[in-house]
Amino acid sequence: VKSNGGANNSVANALINRWNARPYSQRYFDILEKRKTLPVWHQKEEFLQVLKDNQTLILVGETGSGKTTQIPQFVLDAVELETPDKRKKMMIACTQPRRVAAMSVSRRVAEEMDVTIGEEVGYSIRFEDCSSARTVLNLTSGFHRYLTDGMLLREAMTDPLLERYKVIILDEAHERTLATDVLFGLLKEVLKNRPDLKLVVMSATLEAEKFQGYFFGAPLMKVPGRLHPVEIFYTQEPERDYLEAGIRTVVQIHMCEPPGDILVFLTGEEEIEDACRKITKEISNLGDQVGPVKVVPLYSTLPPAMQQKIFEPPPPPLKEGGIPGRKIVVSTNIAETSLTIDGIVYVIDPGFAKQKVYNPRVRVESLLVSPISKASAHQRSGRAGRTQPGKCFRLYTERSFNNDLQPQTYPEILRSNLANTVLTLKKLGIDDLVHFDFMDPPAPETLMRALEVLNYLGALDDDGNLTKLGEIMSEFPLDPQMSKMLVVSPEFNCSNEILSISAMLSDECVLLGCHQQLSSLGSMPPVGMHHRILIPNCFVRPREAQKAADEAKARFGHIDGDHLTLLNVYHAYKQNNEDPSWCYDNFVNHRALKSADNVRQQLVRIMARFNLKQCSTDFNSRDYYVNIRKAMLAGYFMQVAHLERTGHYLTVKDNQVVHLHPSNCLDHKPEWVIYNEYVLTSRNFIRTVTDIRGEWLVDVAPHYYDLSNFPQCEAKRVLEKLYKKREKEKEETRSRR
Ligand code: ADP
Ligand code: MG
């Protein structure tokens, strides 16, 4: 029998937060009650037992069962993070394919644990690390992190055995992102070398046997879902315009269906913002015959404070006893399995998502709006049945569902440009890529292409070994072309400017490419949509002020090209003290610039680590822009197009017909251009282009412009002349000596 004192003591202990030694807040206990109702709580003991007995375990549970928020906390309670070396503490990592999920979930878990975000619980996404050095070194607290799968992969580059971590949780494994797939192979090796490390693979749906087979027959734990029935409706005829059809369906539900929130799946920021505006307008036109609504967008570049809005309750009735309000969430794929929103009763699924596709023959990777898989459609409808029976409206025919949709989404590794991945793997010391243990090995052609590109860039030597240059390049979280451009920019005396241009191009929104659909569902994007989506995000073009916006953009325009225009925007932003109202007046997106500025600072730090000089050519010098353009070419010499006599552009070597994207700032059609992006639509566009000179190709990248392996084309004949000209010049200087 315990003494009274002991009992009191443990009661008192239960009221003290072991992480910060403060008494728990009332909110902690409120949330705790809710947490205890989540399905994973019923299997907490079982989970911990299986984890104790095994090195690897696979956990499958319906979206919303509490995997992402609860499992890492269970692990934290049960696993000893102390090491024999008392100064070191280990951590728990939980990877998320999506940055929004990493941010949102870590914030939620910090709240559940009653601690401050960035201390005991942190997150880490590309260009943003919200975890504190203080805590990692702090002996009194454990630490756990949500991070994107890409970030964990980067950490492995400096810490190959991932020794900071005691338990690694790979979440959302069914998404099969490129980084997750590479981590699979890598962790299999690490587990052999680190018997103390544990791996938990979590997912909403899995081809369970395939995963078990791959992970040495690891045990599989299933968390039974709590799904209510969801009634599925299809359209009778294919929809011509899924956006318009989606909005119409929202309005109909709001007018005719009983209370319950609505979730609409669309493909990207522009489309979602547009839909939100239209929905709000159409419903407000209905007056007070319908209940109030709260329309909330959700996409990856949304600022965190706005992301939190999806968890707010629907608005109350306008007057007491009136019609209840409704929350309408308009989201990308994020809401499919990464984030669970309670209270959704109606789901609208147009059947599309932005997906990466890669064509190794022409080295083009694009984001295309393409039909989702049956598995995705199933997940989407499931979101309607979390709290009560629900309805899912599929904006395509049942026939389309049965005949046109693939069963599963293809793993990303099979539809990606692998140059970056190969560079990372080389840095990790994996030389034999062909025998690397990929769950689904990529096509040999794709691997060969990647090796070839890295060799042209000088990152790999002819034997495929990482060069000194390649080693530095691998430290930048950027595409190899861009890292190359940065690393060599001091040689062109313009690293300051190249840093700014890289940062402007790396703004997440600009990276997201194009908009086309491989439509088998019969629905076409609304007219004019291509145009809106394709405008780089730093320029704002509101519908009601398009002319003023275009004029504002023209004021930044540089006649030699879009890269230099971006540089002008960045300089003007800094000269105007980063003033948001200046941004507003000039139709520039303040958030995009702020984020570019942040990216720039991170790149500066990496440059400094390798003693890469920060320098500029004198602005009044004639070489100021010439040097910048040459430095860009040093990275992007494989992305060049030549103007043919017929008046159209052909990409060099690949001989693809392309057009300058209408958003370009050039006042002429240059003979040679470099481009940042190849946009596949009904026509092939090259976007973000800059005028360069043919002579520079010969000077900067003679190994690539080696005419002995060049297809016959106009560009080749021009280059031949340029080589002869260079020869002649050399001879002249020689004879003058
Ligand atoms: P799973 O990973 O199994 O899909 P989660 O752990 O993400 O499930 O979600 C468990 C519960 O936590 C859900 O009911 C979800 O709505 C809730 N939740 C998650 N994040 C938040 C948040 N930021 N605010 C409020 N509730 C949240
Ligand atoms: Mg989850």
What descriptors fit this protein?
binds adenosine-5'-diphosphate; binds magnesium ion; 737 residues; 6-stranded parallel beta sheet; alpha/beta; 8-stranded mixed beta sheet
Write a structural description:
The structure is a single chain. This protein is an alpha/beta fold and 737 residues long. It is 42% helix and 16% strand. Residues 133-142 and 508-536 have low confidence and may be disordered. A hairpin with a 5-residue loop joins strand 17 and strand 18. Strands 4-3-5-2-6-7-1-8 form an 8-stranded mixed sheet, sandwiched between helices. Strands 9-16-13-10-12-11 form a 6-stranded parallel sheet, sandwiched between helices. A 5-stranded mixed beta barrel has the order 17-18-19-21-20. The termini are far apart. The chain has 29 helices and 21 strands. Helix 4 (67-78) packs across helix 5 and helix 20 (495-506) packs across helix 26 (590-609). Adenosine-5'-diphosphate is lined by residues 38, 61, 63-70, 104-105, 108, 311, 340, 342.
